Amino acid sequence: MIKFLRRNKGMNCDEIMEVLQGYLDGVVDEETAREVASHLSDCAICAPEATLYSRIKDSLSAKQLSVDPEVLAGLHTFGERVAKGEFETDS
Ligand SMILES: [Zn+2]
Question: Which residues surround ligand 1, an ion (CB under 5 A)?
Fold first, then answer.
């Protein structure tokens, strides 16, 4: 397995993942925040994770209630199929 990480002092990816949510929520202490920030600027694994988390967080906090029409259509189709009994479970 390829190592993306430079071996600098500080946290490894597992540790970053553990505190990432807290970091984005701004509830970690300053030193941890610094470690996470420097790790994220350097890590090809954690950086996209962090971006994804913050996007989810942003869209939640923006209270975006609009739903992708395609998703909605998919749900509708699914509902019809359920109504037709296509998904009856074995009893
Ligand atoms: Zn990482």
Answer: 13, 16, 43, 45-46
